[in-house]
Amino acid sequence: MKMLIPNAYMQETNYSAMRINNIATVKNAKTYLEIGVQRGNTFFNVNVQNKFAVDPNFLFNINQYSDNPCLHFFAMPSDDFFKLMFSKKNNLLKFDVIFIDGLHTYEQTLTDFKNSLSFAHDDTVWIIDDTVPTNPYSAISDVNLTYLFYKKIGYKGKSWHGDVFKIVFAIHDLFPEFSYCTLLNKSQTIVWKTKKNKDKRKIFQSAKEIEMCTYFNIFNYAHKFNAIPEHFLLNVVGNDIELEYDHDVWEEFIYKLPQKSFENS
């Protein structure tokens, strides 16, 4: 069933929605969860039959869609949404595709991922946004500090990804039953369950070490992001993958991406 998209939320190109739609088509997705919706630019451009939107502060009137049985809006923090689902014993509800784009913090992103596991199945695909910060200031968990530093150095950009990048390390070390890849120029990591647990050598000694990571830890472990070009995505999702280290890709990631970020300000 193709959803009608309100004109107010149409975009000429919404790459997140295009990516999600491609994955949804391959996976024959019928249910979709989006955490962090705001204006609905991605949500309304996703063509999945039953869609669930979670945001404590929707920037549009959700009441105008109350007569649409395929659209479900939850005006609350994601923690409250999952508590509500658990209280209703709604764990029979399983999402085929889950887009996590809420608070740009590692702590909340990890919490959302862990909570969503109870509402996922073996073929669910997650798209986690903001996993590739464009510069060291963009990777600070406090947005006010990010913008304060931008002001001090005269940087006019507004990019803020928070410390979501740590979720890549967490999935690698703490969830060996999952595979993932990252679209570097899109700052998104795609996650899916593999057929068997991988015997991965952990990057860090503990979960606490992951929490303490900074942007500069990426320098040593950038290859663990499993970078792929966009056109490889559908060939990779759902498969057990082991990607080889590509020196040129990571030279671009570690040194040139921050440089471009500041040059384009």
Model description:
It contains nine helices and seven strands. By secondary structure, the protein is an alpha/beta fold. It has a seven-stranded mixed sheet with strand order 3-2-1-4-5-7-6, with helices on both faces. It is globular. The N and C termini lie far apart (42 Å).
Q: Report mean pLDDT, rounded to a whole number.
A: 86
In whole angstroms, the N-to-C terminal distance is 42 Å
Helical content class: 25-40%
Number of helices: 9
According to DSSP, the number of beta strands is 7
Strand content: 15-25%
Element order: H for helix, E for strand: HEEEHEHEHHEEHHHH
Instruction: Give the CA-based shape.
Output: globular
- Biggest sheet strand line-up: 3-2-1-4-5-7-6
Low-pLDDT runs: 1-12
Instruction: Describe the sheet with the most strands.
Output: 7 strands, mixed
Using only C-alpha atoms, the radius of gyration works out to: 18 Å
Keywords:
265 residues, alpha/beta, 7-stranded mixed β-sheet, disordered N terminus
Concise account of the structure shown:
The chain is an alpha/beta fold and 265 residues long. The chain has helices at residues 15-27, 78-87, 106-116, 143-153, 166-174, 207-211, 217-221, 233-236, 247-263; strands at 31-35, 50-54, 71-74, 95-100, 120-129, 178-183, 188-193.
